[in-house]
Write a structure and sequence with these properties.
Nucleotidyltransferase, domain 5; binds adenosine-5'-diphosphate; 2 domains; binds ribulose-5-phosphate; 6-stranded mixed beta sheet; about 425 residues; nucleotide-binding; D-xylulokinase activity; alpha/beta
């Protein structure tokens, strides 16, 4: 059977769609920047545009679609699916008071105990936008709803920071606490990523999608980047050098450490352990244009370290490898030569990456063997060389660096030529 799959990725700064055939070959790809990453109206308009920009002939052949979104970007909507709250982005930490409430309910080391977790955001949204009969959804859940029309469905990956337990495949017992119990009707039903949810609504069909196309449960943007990389051995890792720095290591064992912002996503019978720093390539855009980044990087000599030790946050607050909402950016001293400043930034980001992988292993994750690289920073050779020195294991650019490619693979499931690759994961169900 020939499967044509469409993967759609909503990252921080932009959204992309990639259509693949059964051999994993790219049939079409399209991208749009997001002017307001927290505006659901813009997400919806972008979704329609991305689909319409796929050539009609390819669009009509698409048999499966999966969408990934930024993790813990959430909103409340009414029973018709219309947003009734602002969308809170993954790094939105306004819910400090709700965090204090949740600290009296959730187990002490649980990853929901962060001001940016989906569950803390749900408590905050419920307080400020009370609703009867509404739904709490993640960005990827809501965008998939626009295509299949079914509300109240999420996936293991997006639901992890909501408190869902992917090992037990249920919400934990402490969700019955009197403060959380009233929120239960808002919670999504959670399925394995890649599970077929439904077929396109009439509106989605009017975009040229076949009525038989299947819309699948999605994943998060950095897990989609992991899937895109082709990494599949225990010890393989993928670093996403996007707006934020995200580490994912394929491990036999889950590990968790709230103090270090470390948690584990379920991937079949294995675990994707890691964390996401608030630092990342976005800081580079604060100081350099894309042309300057390319040009100055050519003047960097990775063999001559600058000795600069920055903590390149955009603003106060870090999640991983140390979970410290009060950590301040450190961007001084600044050398006169711009290429040395850039090198210092790249070295500092690489140091954070190294500390992150070290911490995962100290906690008992499977040993790091090699690191693939995804995201907008992946194609910078100087950064790659610097990272290689810090990490001490082979570092390479992922064969496919686009999360949208990974979302398309997720949509394919194991029913096509990707079967061989997926069989090397000891999958039992889902992805
Ligand atoms: N040559 C380069 N060297 C380093 N970083 C780069 C380069 N070109 C682009 N970037 C960075 O890539 C980031 C965008 O990557 P992308 O994966 O699209 O991000 P996201 O989806 O997380 O918003 C920007 O923050 C930009 O600074
Ligand atoms: O920073 C992010 C936004 O781009 C990452 O998506 C995110 O925090 C990583 O989360 P997850 O491990 O759940 O995929």
């Amino acid at each position: 059977m020939t499967i044509t799959a469409l993967g759609i990725d909503f990252g921080t700064s932009g959204a992309r769609a990639i259509a693949l055939n059964a051999k994993g070959e790219i049939l079409a790809s399209t991208r749009r920047t997001l002017a307001q990453p927290d505006n659901p109206q813009e997400w919806a308009a972008t979704l329609w545009e991305l689909i319409q920009e796929i050539p009609l002939k390819v669009r009509q052949q698409i048999q499966r679609i999966a969408i990934d979104g930024t993790s813990a970007t959430v909103l409340l909507c009414n029973p018709d699916g219309d947003p009734i709250s602002p969308a809170l982005l993954y790094n939105d930490d306004r819910a400090q008071e709700s965090l204090k409430v949740l600290a009296g309910i959730a187990p002490a080391n649980h990853l929901v105990l962060s001001a940016t977790s989906s569950l803390v955001k749900l408590l905050w949204l419920w307080e400020h936008y009370p609703t009867a009969g509404g739904y709490f959804l993640h960005q990827a859940d809501w965008l998939a709803f626009l295509l299949h029309g079914q509300l109240g469905i999420s996936d293991w990956h997006n639901a992890l920071k909501l408190g869902y337990d992917p090992a037990a495949e249920t919400y934990p017992d402490w969700f019955y606490h009197p403060i959380l119990a009233p929120l239960q009707p808002l919670l999504p039903k959670v399925v394995a990523p890649g599970t077929v949810i439904g077929t396109p609504t009439r509106i989605a069909q009017s975009l040229g999608l076949s009525s038989e196309c299947q819309i699948c449960a999605g994943t998060t943007d950095s897990i989609a980047a992991f899937l895109a990389s082709g990494a599949h051995h225990v010890g393989d890792a993928v670093t996403s050098l996007g707006s934020t720095l995200v580490l994912k290591l394929l491990s036999n064992r889950p590990v968790q450490d709230r103090a270090a912002g470390i948690y584990s996503h379920r991937l079949g019978d294995l675990w994707l352990v890691g964390g996401a720093s608030n630092c990342g390539a976005a800081i580079l855009g604060q100081f350099f244009t894309p042309t300057e980044l390319e040009h100055l990087s050519r003047h960097i000599n990775p063999q001559q370290p600058t000795g600069l030790d920055y903590y390149p946050l955009l603003r106060r607050g870090e999640r991983f490898p140390v979970n410290d909402p009060h950590l301040e950016p450190r961007l001084e001293p600044r050398p006169a030569e711009p290429h040395l400043f850039l090198q210092g930034l790249l070295e500092s980001l690489s140091r954070i990456e190294q500390q992150g992988y070290q911490r995962l292993q100290t906690l008992g994750a499977s040993p790091l063997q090699r690191v693939w690289t995804a995201g907008g920073g992946a194609h910078n050779p100087a950064w790659l060389a610097i990272r290689q020195q810090f990490l001490g294991v082979p570092v390479a650019i992922s064969p496919q660096t686009e999360a949208a490619y990974g979302a398309a693979l997720l949509a394919c499931g194991s029913t096509n030529s990707l079967q061989n690759r997926q069989q090397s994961y000891p999958f039992t169900s889902g992805c």
